[in-house]
Every structure is written in structure tokens, then in C-alpha cells.
Amino acid sequence: MRRNPGLVVGAAMVALVVVIAVISAFWTPYNPTEVSPNRLLPPSANHLMGTDGFGQDIFSRVLVGARSCLLVGVVAVGIGALLGVPLGITAAVKRHSWFGTLIMRATDIVYAFPALLLAIILAAARGSGSTLTAMTAIGIASVPAFARVSRGAALQVLSQDYIVAARSAGITSGGIAVRHVLPNIAPVVLVQVSVSFGLAILAEASLSYLGLGTPPTTPTWGRMIYESQPYLYSDLNLALWPGLFIAIAVLGFNLLGDGLRELVDPTLQDLDR
Amino acid sequence: MASAEPIYRVQDLVRVFSHGPQPVIAVDHVSFEIPAGQRLGIVGESGSGKSTLIRMMAGLRRPSSGDIVFAGQSIVGRRESELSWLRRGVQLVFQDPRSSLDPRMKVADIIAEPLRSRIWQGTKRPDPFSRVNELMAQVGLDPGDRNRYPHQFSGGQRQRIAIARALAPNPRVLIADEAVSALDVSVRAQVLNLFADLVADHGLTLVFVSHDLSVVRHVCDAVLVMQAGHIVEAGPVDQVYSDPREPYTRQLLASVPRLRRD
Amino acid sequence: MIMMSDELLRIEELSVRFAGSSRNALEKISLQIGRGERVGLIGESGSGKSLTALTIMGLLADNAKCRGSIRWQGRELLGLRDAEYSRLRGEEISMVFQEPMTALDPTMRTGRQVAEVLRLHERAPVGKARPRVLEMLADVGITDPQRVADSFPHQLSGGQRQRVLIAMALINTPDLLICDEPTTALDVTVQARVLELLRSGLDRAGSALLFISHDLAVVSQMVDRIAVIYQGRIVEAGTRSQVLENPHHPYTAGLIATADLANVAPGARLPVLDDFWKRAADGQR
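^ inputs. structure came back:
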């Protein structure tokens, strides 16, 4: 921890987003979706960040936006990790058979598929964009990253003699995956979780901006930027705040991910022997 | 004459690796027998095929052709679920305990691993808790350390943990793959003494693989010398050590570093 | 004043402590190496022997605090700026590590890696370096230097990789070569060959040697003087025959007894270090 300022700063930024998300569940200065005649007010004591084109309080909307941002991150990363990690481990265990190859080719195809396109297809299939559509699309799009990272780490674990010992003790390959591979690749997966979280937030913002994500009734940071478009040259204020918080969240999760990577990378610790 | 039946019979064993551009014959028509209770050394350099040979004997790798009979039954061509008797009867100790012990497992769980698998279906499974304590004491570890992790032990102690795990299912054969090569020379003696004691106390059959003939001479009574997949020399260890027939064996012997005091 | 000019390295009362640790990893170590002299440093894992090598090379992480003195040809090395240290490393002092795979860059052909060392210190142009590299590879017993120079490290055997490292270490004819367990990862036959060509390479270059190992038999084959390190302290030092014929410290006696299996009857119980600690304790009583 001592010489890892990125980790500390990243953790602090992530903590900030989590804290405002929690606060927004209990308290916001105004109803974030209440339309009022006080349109496009500059920041003041009454409206800390001003109001938007519908007279809604930007500060309240930013607070509530943190919640949907985290929700999207949790669900999308959850889908990515819950599908990707088992796929990656299976591909590593079955690396000599056609099944392992098939898994990796399939994830390659998904990898080559833009999340945006996936979201458009899903939205078209369901008839409209929604938070669920966005989360599912982003989650599926992040499966290949989890699968690749897990497979690489699992291959390294599988080359160890304790795997041979487990086999000669009669442990099945499923047992080896759960008992030995999963605990030993957990740190690497954790790093990927953190990085993917940042990417998911960014992707959700883009989807909302395009109108493919969360519906207008729920404030999200991406949606707020979308709605600020007509006023971009007159009232930069509207785009500035949600943009700032997207930057904080994405940067925070990426710094956290890099910091964790440094923490778990054994080559960086060997020198301290 | 049941006692005359060897515990291992290896017949015309071949293993070819065909992953690379050219197929490699790792083990080339090897045949030998191990009488129960023998301490057999297998000596050769890396690439001689000794590791592939013992992995096939332990049922961890399939032979390309030939047969391996353990305790009267062939192990070749069987499915994993049909090998329980082999898994209970044959255990391995590896070269480097850093690689052979899962760093995220407690010592007690490592040692008890062979007791927690399907090989006990239809047989009485020993109680892991008391067995771990018993095994740790046998290999000279403090059973009070059972909840610690491998990195909290020295190299020699870690190899003792690996030996305790190998003894857990009460095997008849212990296969040691370069089990002292990664240890400090000063620790080597302790682990070799432990092997000698355990083999004597439990009436084990020992297969001891090493590139160092002086180590093999100390713990074994018979030796096979392997080179490029073949057995080039075999016999009682004293005879091979004092009167080697093959130039290759002589070269192996001459390479062992001796203490120079002058 | 002959002594002065013959002295290459003088370590005096060197102590090293890592931040957050309550005890010194090295405790007042003193060691001298004369020009062309071959000195062995023997000890077990964790004794501080590799740490000593890294300290001399100035390769310690910055959470290590050093006290005492390391004088190289009369010049103090502790506190030297890294830029000056780099000039020293590879040119005047070079090092061979235990693990030949990790010490080579897996993405670069070995010939280029050897040439790199030469170029960095002699500023020889690329084309000029090639013949010298091939000559050096042949000197360390590589029979087909052309092929080895054009191979990547993973295409070579362990013994070949270690030879490449020795070639890299000796190509600038350093004044001192430090070897840290250079043959531990090798088979005995390969070890014997590598030790032999290391000796002839040193003869040719006229370099001094600091040979670090846990294997006393190997050390005794390579050096004239031996220092024994135990828990960060040097507990015994002297010429090879002084130390091996008449050890004063029980730890040294234990290392000697465990070094050579051929001295013990087959099947008999091998002496272990503990026997000698006990004997020493009994003797004091």
C-alpha cells in the first residue's frame, strides 16, 4: 500500500461515488424528476449545480445518477464475470480438446462485436431501450475479457505440480477448478472486475446518450449529457457536472484496477525479499 | 507364491509426443519389474524420459503402447473412475514444494486432499482431522501448525508437508520425482533420512528419481540408468556405483561434485 | 603499497535493513576480494548470500538501508548515483544469476542480447559486434554459435542458456564476476561442464570471482577462499583448506558433513546440521 498512490486515490474516488449513491437513496435536495419553471439557472446556494432545461435540480440528478451508474456496473460486471470466468477456466482445463478451442473462438466472435451493436439489436428485439437492455448488452460484451483473463491465469495455475498432486489424489477436474484454480486466479479476476466496472459505466453513459439505455424518467449521467445537447454552447454547466462524475467514476475504477494489479503482481514484490 | 508377484511390471512401454514439428519418443520400449519393498532409483538427465515414465506409472499420462501392471492389474486404458485402487496405492512427491503446494490452502487441507476425493467410494475413508495430526507428527512437523500456509514454512519443511500428503492415503508405493534436488544441500540430508525412516517404518516400495547418482546410491538398493528414453544400465546400486559398465553411467558418476579440501 | 593496488573489493561492516523490519538482513559483513582472486560465499536460503550480491551490484530496492562501506578499487560504492553505478555494472562488475530463463529477454534473439552488453559498454557498432559475440559464444563451449546466436532463449536448453549468460557476463572482461547459484537449476552433468568452462573463461579474462552457493562441494571446486554466511552474519572465513580442514564454527562443520554423500555408508543415517549445533552446545556445557 505504501508506494501505491494510484490505489489509494482510485479507492477514494470509487468510495465517493458509492457514498453519494447511498445518500441519494435517502435524501436529495429536490425531487430529481420534478419539472419546474426555474429553467437553466446557474449554480447558486439554492441549486448547487444549477438547473437544467426542464428546471430540474442538477445536483439532485447527479446524486441519483450515481445509483443507476453503480447498478449498471454491478449487473453488467456480474454478467461478465459469472459467464466469463467459468468459460475461461473451462477453456483452460479443456485446452487440448475441441471444446476448449470452441469456447475461445466463440468469445473471440463476441469480442469482435461492438457492445453498441449488441445493445441496438437487443433494444430492437425488445421494442425499446431500457436499463436492463443496456446492462445485458454491456455484460455480454465484457464476457470475452473475463474469459481471456481467467483462461490465461488458469493455464498458469494448471502448470503447477499441485495440480498433478491433486489428480493423483483422485480429485476430478471440476474439483480442481473449484479448489485450486478459482482461489488462485481470484486476484487477477478482481483486477478485471475493477477495470470492467469503469468500462461498463462509460458504455452505459454512451448508450444512454444515444437513447438506447435508461428511459428518460430515470436520471443517469449519460442521459443528462444527452439532454444537455441543445444548450451545449449557452449553458455548459448542464453537461459539465455529469461529465465530471463519469470521469471520476471511470478514472476511479481504472486507478483501483491498476493499483490492485500492482498489489497482486508477484514480480513487483520479489524485489523486496 | 503370492509374494513373488512384483508390485509393478512395466512391459515394452512407449510414449511418443507428437505436439511439435517432429514426434519425440520420450520413452522407448522400456521393460522392468519392481518387487514389493524394493527401493528403486531411476537416474538420468532432463529429457531422458524418467519423468514421463513415472507419470505413466502413476496413471497421470497414457502410454502410446505397452503395458503397466500395478498390484496384479493393468492400469492402461482405464478410465479415471476405475483407477481408485491405483490412486490409493501410489503417491508422488515432487521436486519443488513451491510448485507442489497450493499457496492458498492451509497445510491441513493440503495434507488431507487425498482423503477428500472419490477414491474412497466403497472403502473406509480415514478421518481427515486425526490423520493429518498423525501424519504431521510422522514427518517431523508440529500438528499445531496445521492451520498455517505453505509460505510460512522453510523449504525443507514444505517438502515434509508434501511427503505427509503423499502418505495420507497409506500408499504402498511412493514415487519421489527429484524430491531433494531443489533443496539446500544442508537440508537434503534431513529429507533423505526422513525418506529412509518412512520407507522402513511403513514397508513402502520407493521409486526415487534423480539426476544425482550419489543421492540414489544412498537411499536405493537397485537402480535404472536412463538415457534418451532407453534404460542403458540396470542392477544393484552398489554394483552400478562401484563398477559401471556404460560410459554414460561413468560420466554421470564423474559429474557429481565432490568436496575438495586441499 | 602493493596490497592497495591488488585489492579489488573491500566490504567493511556492511549492514542492510529493510524498511518495516526490526532486524538487519545483513549484519556487519566484512569481505575482501583481491584482483583475480576467487572467493566463495556459502550459506542456506535466507542467509543473506544473494542479498550480499545485490548490495554489491547496487541493485537493492529503495526500501533497503545500507550502512558500512563497500569500496571498489578504492572508491566508495554506497551512495553512488545510479548512472555511475550502471557504468560499473556489466563493465567492471558483472553477474550470472541462478535462473537462466528469467535472466534473458524472451523476445530477443540471444546473439543480440550478448551484443547489447558489448555495445553498451564499448559503443561498438552492430555489425562489428557480431564476430566478437560468436567468438565469445564459442569460448563458453557452444559448438554452433551461429545457430544459438539466432535463437530465442526458449529454443535453447537450460545449459545453453546458462552458457549464453556466462558469455554475456564475461564479454567485457570484467574485473569481478559474481555468480549467484549459477548451476543450481542444472543437471549434474551439465553443471560439471558449465563449471569447467566458467573456470576457463575466468582464466582467459583474468577476472576475480565471487561464487555464491548453498552447495559446498560445488563451491570448493571453484574458489581459493571461502566465507560462510549464517543469518546475515559471516561466521567463518579463510582459505579453502583452513575452512574445510579445520572449521571453527559448528555451522561450518555441519555444512562440510552434509556436503558429500559419498563419505557416508549407503543406507546409513546422514549427518544433519542439528547434530553439530547439539555437539557444540554439549561441548560448552
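Chain A touches chain C at residues 271-273 (CB under 8 Å). Residues 266-273 of chain A have pLDDT under 50 and may be disordered.
thumbs up if we can close this ticket
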